[in-house]
Amino acid sequence: MCIRDRLCPSATLAEQLCDVTTAISYFAARADEYGFDKNNLFITGDSAGGNLAAMTVKASVNKAMAEYYGLGELPRFNAVGFTSAAFRLSQYEKPAFSGYFRPLFKDLPPVREYVDYDADISSDYPPSYIITGNGDFLRRENLSVAEKLTAAHIPCAVYDYDGNEKFIHVHNVCYPDSDIGKAANDGMLNFFGSYIKNL
Q1: What confidence tens digit (pLDDT) does each residue in 93-140 have?
Q2: Is 70 within 8 Å of 62 (Cβ atoms)?
Q3: Closest among 172, 167, 166, 194 to 184, alpha carbons compared
Q4: Maximal CA-CA distance, the chain
Q5: What are the start-end ranges of the E strands in 24-171?
Q6: How far apart are CA 127 and CA 111, in angstroms?
Q7: Bond from prior residue into 9 cis (ω within 30 degrees of 0)
Q8: Beta-bridge partners for 130
Q9: How far is CA 35 from the centre of its chain?
Q10: Would the keyword Hydrolase be found if you checked this record's keyword annotation (predicted)?
């Protein structure tokens, strides 16, 4: 399924997370009706949607965070895929960014662990596949998070394009039929395939 959420600044981060988790809970409760296998759940997100995917995963393993945002109980995910994800919202409160971003993220909680995926990494995080490349303005952040996940013994694979072409932000989403896009997306699918539970 493809979840649509309300966007900033018309919705707060908490409301966006509520949109995502409400949709997940809705379909999980109707798995038989829709033909879903609740034992094999994966989540992906790109850019700001990557942050929502990251925060959803974090809330699924952090009860205090889920309660803070008013989220219900969430299922566990077999694996998660991130494309050019915005993992660290707290950085947008810095003076260099705050003039533009503060109105968008006016409800950020004071608890850094509730807005930054790599703050207080849980051993319960699912395996992660991260896509980035040489023209992605979030490349450094994505590679840094990948290093932290690996150091925390969370299985993590990275598709980091550094070839002759320019890999723009969310390249594989914008150009899924390009050679680069196909390689990145196929890599994520293959990664997910290795975490499918056979009943």
Answers
A1: 655 555 555 555 556 666 667 888 998 898 999 999 999 999 999 999
A2: no
A3: 172
A4: 51
A5: 42-46, 79-83, 128-133, 156-161
A6: 24
A7: yes
A8: 82, 158
A9: 24
A10: yes
